[in-house]
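Section: Multi-chain targets

For targets with more than one molecule, the full set of components is provided together so that the structure can be written out for the assembly as a whole rather than chain by chain. Components appear in the order listed by the source. The example entry contains two components.
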Amino acid sequence: MNEFQRDLPLSREPYRDIAARLGVEEETVLTLLRRLQASRIVSRVGPVFTPNRLGVSTLVAAKVPPDRLVEVASLINRCPAVNHNYEREHHYNLWFVVTAPDQAELDRTVAGLEKQTGVSLLVLPMLRDYFIDLGFDMRWPPDDAD
Amino acid sequence: MPIDAASNADLRMRVIREIEGGIPLEPHPYRVIGERLEVSESDVLEVIRHLAGEGAIRRYGIVVRHHELGFRANGMVVWDVPDNRVDEIGRLFGEQRFVTLCYQRPRKLPDWRYNLFTMVHGCEKNAVRENVRVLENLLEGPGFPHEILFSARRFKQRGARYAVAPRLESVTVRGARETPRSEMP
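Its structure, encoded as tokens over all components, is:
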């Protein structure tokens, strides 16, 4: 899994290519991936898109009265444009990401959520990305050899 | 009729919709997608290669969940660093192996003073705090104001969906006793 978090071959039979690199049968790779997906360790096999290239997105934060948190989170979850939605231990206690095809649609979605929940939203779009995504190193703690 | 797959915006959006939730775990995943979209396996692959070539795909492969791997704590660490040093500090933090996101975001004064966001992982909260100290120690001088926002309940987690007209989905809110969860970028 460590090897194939990126640069999965863009070939017709990617799992056969992985199997060949590992010296095992294709069916072994597929069975393992299906099992890891069933146990929720593997989320999916496929692309991680570059933020703000195919569409626009923003992080949004809200100060929600604790007794309304589950209700407000539920309203926000119902919006298909929302992906991550987390409670965090802070007076800004609800954090979520909104994605849209363009800025106008994003603004409309955020305004709609604000109206629907009656909670004012702090819109914090990414201005610059400093992270180079190489996947997640599972040899933890990582040795510093490389 | 031959189609120029890479420039066909409609096909492109349909392929994105098929692959954003993951490609099939089948020997010929792109043939399966092609059958659904009534195009050839090669057309599907060409669209994906084109997306990768233009930088729209940041990485392509197995996407794992940190929480299920035992990295049960994650802290979103927000920093108030001088605007003229945010690029330098952002790049330095972004290189650290326990950091999985590192973004500059706008301040929203007076409500929000922080302009640099890092996602820091660890097996438990103290490991996250220790990693934050590692970040602080990378910088010379007195240090910068920051806060660690630990995650509590995870109400929703999935990859971003870019395709228009997203499918309807039913999402339930998890119970109040949910243990802290980590998130994927």
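The first strand of chain B starts at residue 57 and ends at 64.
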